[in-house]
Amino acid sequence: MSMYLDRDLSFGAVSECLARTAAEPVAAAQALLSRRDEEALAEARARDALRGLTPGGEPLAGMVLGVKACFDVRGWTTHAGSRVLADAPPAAEDAALVRALRAAGAVLLAQNNMTEFAYGALGLNAAYGTPLTPCMTDAPRVAGGSSSGGAVAVALGMAHVALVSDTSGSARIPAAFCGVAGFKPSRGRYDDGGMMYLSPTFDVPGIIAADAAGCLRVDKALAPDSAPPHPACGAMPLAGRIFVLPDHVEDMLVPQVRNTFSAWLERLREAGAVLRRMPMPCIAQAGAVARDGGIIAAEAYALHAPRLAVDSARYDPRVGPRMLLGARVPAHAYLAAQRRLAELRGEYDALMAGADAVLTPTVPMLPPPVAMLDDNDVYLRENARAFSLTEFANRLDLPSISLPGAPAAGNAVGLMATGLRGGDRALLAAAAQIEDVLGSAARRRN
Hints:
Strand content: 5-15%
Distance between the termini: 11 Å
Radius of gyration: 20 Å
Number of strands: 11
Structural class: alpha/beta
Order of helices and strands: HHEHEHEHEHEEHEHEHHHHEHHEEHH
Helix content: 25-40%
């Protein structure tokens, strides 16, 4: 974006994204659903002409925006990647975050593809096509879900930021698989008005950008008055930071992920970071508690029961039957799980006293080939593996970010940093420092 002068910053940015979209027609068709190419160019010209006259400025000037299909955009149907809602009337107004991002200077270009109703961690979509990771080209491999289209768009330069949702890792899994950054905030940090839920207990809006610095820029625009719990925390050098490594994670990793993660940890140690390996049973237990209590299934069923009763055949066969299981969840199991998760949040807070973040790989394996997922048992197994490390941040209501690895080397591996509830800005600052030590995918491309 720096090649454009201020007077044509937005127009140049949109033009560049459109050129990259045209250069990748197959990937664009998979990742981008509705588009507004000419409208975006016209809007960019107008923004450039008025720059400097907007009260408070435009902190996201020069950024091009994609929006996951579960957020309302005026004039587009919020179908959430499903045939079931394909004929629904278009949204009458933008979702709250779409309005906020556009008010801050971002230019909206496209609606991004996703797993149907956000119920899946691999990114498959039977209705609109399955986006593929650009990081590994030995075979068609999934981009990760549920925010598959947004991650592909940012990775290929079709957008600079994607507005997404995150239930169990939906911002971070595709970010890891596509070599970009994905940020899940603490609950309530961003306005979720106009976002279609999968699970009201766990869903939050999130951000995908090229790197942590991009996520931090967007966060400052969306939460401008926010500050770290301790004023000095954001400026603390990496050598003064303490990171926790849960001791149950290493056995979950495939060799390539394990080796990459170990190399990153060694570089962080050399930079002076303090790494503490310790048992964290609250992390290991959080996902099982939510599953045993049927929280997501019960809430998804409650939201979809009227449509499932009359239109179940149009649901993706990987989605509809799993939602129907929510009808069988006992109320006592659901409530017991909610109570236990509240206890585990307290246990996490106690274990993290004095520490900055938990570090793990984002996903324990590499993106699986699409062909192997035709078998439903294999799909369910790989889907569960994909969110096995990300889900605890949702269950315990923690900010979490996946940082890009080394896609140029065929390494679709992410490093995940998960912080303290409400400490979003401090986590993002620490993540930007980690990226400075490790090097980011965005900087390697430039």
